[in-house]
Design goal:
Radius of gyration: 23 Å
Number of strands: 20
Largest sheet: 7 strands, antiparallel
Number of helices: 11
Structural class: alpha+beta
Low-confidence stretches: none
Length: 557
């Protein structure tokens, strides 16, 4: 190290604090429910070479994709980067992950004009144009169906908005007021980070700050190597399956991961994964990178910094033309469904590496409802994006968590009051699903059931999707624990309940209800060894039915 470790640690926490403050600024100034209430965004800082320095740990699937998107901007614009510029990018084949996730970067310069680094804010926009409301759909067959692709453009030139680009965006999205409002919030968030980064450079000096940053990245890389070296050498393999390829039922898609640990290096090989899908669930390389970053981070000590250095000892091979490295212009808008399953496969492969961190499988199906509505307050058109959380897998020491957005995601539950005040919908039911958690000595977490009634006087277009609805691919138990429940979708009408396809578009008539039901996590250990008082508490709280308590757990009150 060029500098003492205390100074390096102080700078590290200063950078992380800046990223957190940027996230708060974005959430408080955004216009959309997706950013304000669902919290589908992340903020980060980068050095002058585009390397990730610090990030607010909001949505893991977004974090490792930001550096490639920024580097694409830097390569395109070269020396034509100036104070006050703002860059925008969402092109999934130029470092971004999907068109809905908009990257916004702002450079930071010191008073002498030396580039200090960049700040970045990425936010999910509920609609970004394209074939369907909400843009992303498993049934899409081309990136050209997935809205406006922005290939590393300038949104502002030296602080002056690029009105031509803004006009193009506004003309191609369904509800431009919401999109432009969130873009302004992203710019404001990034600029707030620039001011703080400039003050940090003023305190330490630009050259010294850069040296401290290099120390921080080197330190992270070295600690990562040390941790990898502590793990047993070997090849570790796992596989998992998507229910289908997004184009039709009964077409499972195989995802594989082989992790090879040799000394202080870790190599991930996705050879064996099925070819790219005809539908929209393909995983772009930036998201594949995020999956690996997430999995490696899960092996590290809690005090390990999160930055580019943690990937230095890690190499990745993703075969071109596979579901984890599709060839342009394959559709990738629904990559989140597949990336969650890939994260599950990665953690399953790493289970023997550190058994102390093992758990049963988590539900990764992520049921989602996207519908085009209007605001009951303003009458403006709006698009709702609402996800339903599932259950985490149990571990050797505790039950799995209920109702969590697992692995690569971390979205919040949108409060019923927010949905009902912003959309022509009523939330009729929001509850934990009894018996959805896998039975075990420690029970899997439960999933949620959410029912939404159309309150408008016209049919409402919707898109509803989920994964992990096939019992063959349910979240598996561990050490004798049973599998968790699977997901399902249904339409509730006056005539009764009608099962819906697990991926599909349609219209819900006035007064009808769309019901989303998430699955639960797998159980850990033999259910017959669960303490009777815990089973009794589960029955009392409605988490486990009396029938399952008696038949599976052997409980008799």
């Amino acid at each position: 190290m060029r500098h003492d470790p205390i100074t390096t640690e102080v700078v590290r926490h200063a950078l992380e604090t800046i990223a957190d403050e940027m996230g708060n600024a974005l959430r408080r100034t955004a216009l959309s429910v997706v950013v304000k209430d669902m919290k589908d965004y992340s903020c980060a800082l980068f050095d002058s070479r585009g390397r990730l320095l610090a990030a607010a740990l909001d949505i893991p699937t977004l974090l490792a994709s930001m550096a490639p998107a920024l580097q694409a901007c830097m390569e395109k614009w070269g020396d034509d980067i100036h104070p006050g510029d703002a860059f925008i990018s969402n092109h999934p084949y130029l470092g971004a992950c999907q068109t809905n996730d908009i990257n916004l970067f702002v450079p930071a310069f010191d008073p002498s004009g030396v580039l200090i680094g960049f700040t970045g804010a990425i936010a999910h926009h509920a609609d970004w144009g394209g074939r369907v409301a909400g843009t992303a759909a498993a049934a899409s067959q081309s990136a050209f169906e997935e809205g406006v692709m922005l290939p590393a453009l300038k949104l502002e030139y030296a602080g002056v908005p690029n009105q031509t680009l803004l006009d193009i965006i506004a003309a191609n999205v369904r509800h431009p007021k919401q999109n432009l409002g969130d873009l302004r919030a992203q710019v404001a968030s990034a600029r707030s980070g620039v001011r703080r980064l400039q003050r940090l450079a003023e305190r330490y000096g630009t050259q010294r700050l850069q040296e401290i940053i290099d120390d921080l990245l080197d330190y992270t890389a070295e600690r990562t190597r040390q941790r990898i070296q502590e793990l047993p050498d070997g090849r570790y393999f796992a596989e998992g399956f998507l229910d289908d390829d997004g184009q039709g039922p009964d077409r499972p898609v195989r995802l594989t991961a082989t992790v090879e640990i040799t000394g202080e290096t870790l190599h991930v090989d996705f050879t064996g994964t099925d070819p790219q899908m005809p539908g929209g669930m393909n995983i772009p390389t930036s998201t594949t990178r995020s999956v690996v970053h997430y999995a490696v981070k899960s092996l590290m000590p809690d005090d390990m910094p999160f930055n580019e250095g943690s990937l230095d000892p890690v190499t990745i091979h993703a075969p071109e033309g596979s579901a984890v490295n599709p060839i342009y212009p394959a559709a990738v808008g629904d990559r989140h469904l597949a990336s969650q399953r890939l994260a599950s496969v990665m953690t399953k492969a790493l289970l023997p590496v550190d058994p102390s961190r093992s758990s049963a499988e988590w539900f990764v199906g992520w049921p989602v409802l996207i519908c085009e509505s209007r605001s009951p307050k303003t009458g403006d058109g709006v698009v709702l994006l609402a996800n339903v959380a599932g259950g985490a897998g149990a571990t050797a020491s505790h039950d799995g968590a209920d109702a969590v957005d697992v692995h690569m995601a971390n979205c919040a539950i949108i409060p019923a009051e927010i949905i009902e005040s912003n959309y022509m919908l009523r939330v009729e039911r929001y509850e934990l699903r009894c018996d959805s958690g896998g039975a075990g000595e420690h029970r899997g977490g439960l999933g949620i059931r959410a029912d939404y009634r159309n309150l408008s006087d016209v049919p409402m277009p919707y898109l509803s999707e989920t994964e992990q609805s096939n019992p063959k691919f349910a979240p598996s138990g561990h050490e004798g624990g049973l599998s968790g429940g699977v997901a399902s979708l249904a339409l509730l009408t006056e005539k009764g309940e009608v099962p819906l396809p697990t991926k599909g578009e349609g219209k819900v008539d006035p007064g009808e209800v769309i019901s989303l039901r998430a699955g639960g996590g797998g159980g850990f250990g033999d259910p017959r060894t669960r303490k009777p008082e815990l089973v009794a508490a589960d029955v009392s709280s409605g988490r486990v039915s009396r029938e399952v308590a008696e038949d599976v757990y052997g409980y008799s009150p």
